[in-house]
Amino acid sequence: MRTILLTVSYDGTDFCGWQKQTCANGSVPHMRTVQEELEKALAVVHKVPVQACGSGRTDSGVHAYGQAVTFESPIDSIPAENYVPALNCRLPPDLRVMSAKEVPMGFHARFNATRRTYRYFIWCGVNPPAHKMRYIWPIFYRPDLEKLNRLCAPLHGELDCTTFSAASDESPSKCRYIEEAFFYQNPDEPDEIIFQISANAFLWRMVRSITGTLIQAEKKGVEDDYIGKILEAKDRKLAGLTAPPQGLFLWNVGFEGIRRGPK
User: Fold this and answer.
1) What digits encode the pLDDT tens for the residues 222-241?
2) Integer angstrom CA distances of residue 239 from 110, 160, 229
3) How far is Cα 149 from Cα 137, in angstroms, rounded to an integer?
């Protein structure tokens, strides 16, 4: 047995998220998920069931540029890099394996991850082109980037993120360590801005809640310390709108450094 680490990209539009769904009776509902599609391809290659473990559970409609996935392979004869073509020829076009490498036995995409980076793409122009619509949030006005980044300033360090948690999030701890959070202009697209945020882990819908709250707060012209104040309140009723899923990408996953906080 050996452990293989994959980097996977997918268009989340037609997926019901990453995680394979099961009913109470153990049956699998008719919901298409990234994990299920990947495990079907792995089973064909290995001729036995193989479990794929992702670094995080992206929601329905959310995309990934660099999701990390590990699996245990019973085959020693296949060079790790050969899993890329072997899996891609058996996967649908909206799910691609970008790289594969062997890692130490027991390495886990979720439990060994130290950093997860998300990017959220926002269209500020009047007429977004059709090919962009599945991957942006069109807001049809241009916010002040300097103001947005002043609002982002409190989003750094070990924080209780209860304010940005979903009502049904069952995480035992709402604390997360945010390494960076900032907006910038897409250098290749004058009508697009990008929000990037990196942390040890995220609560369910946390990035979308933060993004929507920041955009709404900037538009209202609130004071620069607004986000800091609602974080301190630990009241999710104070958060603003939740940004739609289609603009969000799990951009990359890091494994270097010290792992902080909850698993």
Assistant:
1) 999 999 999 999 999 999 99
2) 28, 14, 11
3) 18
- d(Cα 170, Cα 177) in Å, to the nearest integer? 18
Alpha carbon distances (Å) from 14 to 2, 32, 61, 120, 128: 32, 8, 7, 18, 21
59 an active-site residue?
yes
Segment 154-176 mean pLDDT: 90
Two tokens, residue 146: 């300097």
- Return the sign of the alpha-carbon dihedral for residues 78, 57, 88, 100: negative
Q: HSE of 198 in the Cβ direction (CA atoms, 13 Å)? A: 12
pLDDT at 263 over 70: no
Task: Yes or no: say if 113 and 256 are a contact pair by the CB < 8 Å rule.
Answer: no
Q: What is the pTM of this model?
A: 0.94
DSSP structure class, residue 243: P
36, two tokens = 């299920």
Are the beta carbons of 201 and 261 closer than 8 angstroms?
Answer: yes
Helix, coil or strand: residue 148: helix
Structure confidence at residue 262 as a pLDDT band (50, 70, 90): low
Choice among 11, 14, 59, 224 that is catalytic: 59
Q: Indicate whether 255 pLDDT > 50.
A: yes
Main-chain phi, psi angles of 128, to 5 degrees: -70, 140
d(CA 88, CA 207): 29
What element of type H or E holds 215?
helix 206-220
Q: For residue 6, give Cα distances in angstroms to 25, 107, 117, 160.
A: 31, 12, 17, 32
Contacts of 98 (CB under 8 A, 6+ apart): 6, 7, 8, 9, 66, 84
